[in-house]
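Thread: Newbie trying to understand structure tokens

Hi all, I'm a second-year student working on a class project, and my supervisor (Dr. K.) asked me to get a predicted structure for one chain before our next meeting. I've only ever worked with sequences, so writing a 3D structure as a token string is new to me. If someone could post the tokens and maybe explain what I'm looking at, I'd be very grateful. Here's the chain:
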Amino acid sequence: MKSRTMDFPTVSLLLLLAGGLCHSQVITPVGVTATSSLDANRDISHTISGAGLSGGGTPILDQTHSNNVNGTYWLGAFAGGQVLTFDLGGANDVQFIHIWQYWRDNAAWANRAIQSFDIAYSTDGGSNYSTPVAGPVGLTLGTAATPVQTLDLGSVQSGVTHVQFTNLQNFGATDFFGLAEIRFGGPGTGPAIELGDPEVTVLDYDQAEATSFLSGEDASGVTLYWGTVDQGESQTGWDDSASLGAQTAGGAIPDPAALMASLTQGTTYHCRFYAESASSSATAWSNAASFTTPNALQLTNPQASNVAYDQADVTVTSNRDADTTQLYWGESDPGATATGWDNGPVSLGAQSAGTFPAETLSGLTENTTYYFRYFCESSSPVASTAWSEAGTFTTPNALELTAPAATNVVFNQADVAVTSNFDTVSMDLYWGTSDPGATTTGWDNGPVNLGAQTAGTIPAETLTGLTELTPYFFRFVATSSSPVASTAWSDAGTFSTPSENPSAVITPSAVTATDSLGSYPIENTINSSGLTSSPPSVAGWTHVATPTNSNDFSWLGTRAGTEIIYQLPSASSLDYLFFWPYWGGVAARSLTAFDISFSSDGVTYSTPSTITLGAPGSATEVFDLGTQTNVTHVKFDNLQNGGDVYAGIGEVRFGGDTTTPGDPYGTWAAGPWSGTLSDDSSELDFDGGGLETGIEWVVGGDPTDGSDDPGNTPIYNTSDPSNFIFTFKRRDAAAADANTDIAVEYGSNLSGWAEAVHGTDGVTIDDSTDLGGGFHEVTVSIPRTLAVDGKLFARLKVTVTP
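---
Reply by user tm_fold:
Sure, no problem. This is what the structure looks like when written as tokens:
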């Protein structure tokens, strides 16, 4: 079929006032597509669903939209643009576009709202479209309760079946386009006076009240009609009516609500409002609303309590006194009928309004589900009967194994026990690193036959041969013969073994990330906000879920290119990483792997290794890091997840030992070269590169590489006509160390030296330049007038006191 282009008149689109000033026919699209949607919660279909509109019987163009709830708006990718196509469900004459803007409480996100677009129309079911023309101007950003913004196309577009938006522009965001809700409007100004759908509140079995929303012109008179048959837009035939007098437009009417009295219990009614304009001959009818009155007598909240293996107490609540009361119960629920029950009726006589006294059902069978219903009759205030809803309960096993507990947990063994309510003729124990459930198959170990046991807590059984830092699960199963033959499994008990060589749990003192969503800061990963740390071993700690839109417990940031650096309180020897994942929100944001590397100075990091994570959940993931010595900073990068643009982390801790404070030089010397630097004497040039190890400590050199570290060696400048300039790189930790003395000395020969002191003999010392990474640049200016016979020497001297 040859494609053709349909030409429509060029129209100017003018922005009208927001909110209900265009009383034309409102056209709700029956379908909509977009080039892409972020996910199911932000799908384009939400823009025509009305899910986020305020409702309340108010005419739709007077309603506002709440954007902060997922499932009520659309987000689509910014890159590559978007094409939005709206199916109007048949041929329509279109003159208006009604838009509720996307909005979020984050200013950058609010800028995703659509600012402008090009528009085209189809009159043949979407096969061909007119040439796009520039769309509306003047759209503004949304608000917390976003009102409609109505756009006038300037002329009527006739016979339109589909509308298409292209060339979308937003308010400056570069990640997504956003739209909350959209409708289209037919030609004309519509009715001068309008009534919204009635809002009905049923007050009792014999009365209800109703309101509507009046818009347009004030009404000289409003009438509410009701009856058991909807008479449509007719003032005759209704069972009853109430004249409500003059009413003012722009709000709910009447205030207080109109009362419909003398209704019949258990009956369906219909009602409509009718209004006459106070300033014209216009009239209006609301749509019909339907409601059903309840029975005068109502039985609610059937409850079971004190449920044992052979009996249970049941009750129900009545809103009125009952003349007669009957109870039915059994292993199935035949419904609100006196036939088909295993037991009943049990006649309970007259009962007072409120919760009835409990009735005990006896002779029950263990591990069986039961149902029960009450039936009552009353004569006041009117004759009435009522059935309750079905109550239900399940009897437990006669034998119950409860409170499985582990004690005396060490790295390779643990004691476990359980409590039984009856003597048992046999009991077995199963255990392992996973929990297959109440079954004899799938366990790593068991059955361990424990024989007959006396009611109460059984003697502890010791599990041996365990592995350190490992979660374990265990269950007991037992059989009893009295009071009835019964078999029961316990719930799963669990514990985690500690390390064989326990190390301290180290909480980072600071953390930075190259990207964080404003509401999900990286500090959440070290502040224990979601961490439950009550078990004795960190391997047993848990982290709460992070539901969608929650910002209290986890970090979220852009996955690609993000680096996270954890700073430790002091130089430490690390053995373990304890990691709690982001979970419970968008699953694809949970990390599956990342690279980890270590630094002793926050500048130079070790070769990365990869941490591969398991399925996300609340439990600790423990990773053996080997032994990483003299670590001050740990870096996570190359983050991997399920494909989402954002990545998440719950909480992070490390296991190890902090280095004894007070010896920064010793800490540095025990760094990455500790296996090579066999003699860390500060005055020794260990690698023969030309710098003493103490100087390498100050300037950031490598004491084992056999060079003078040219990038870190002090330099001098003789080009200044007045001063000899001596410059060196100084480690901040060395400058702060009371045991490290750093001095620049000068002299006219190589045997007599004077220390350069700022302000003495014209010497100036400037150490204000921050080089980053824990270093400053120091510049010492020595006047040339201090030279003797044209000779002036300078040197850097470092003395480290053991």
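A couple of things are worth pointing out once you decode it. Confidence is low (pLDDT under 50) at residues 1-23. The two ends are 92 Å apart (CA to CA). Feel free to ask follow-ups in this thread.
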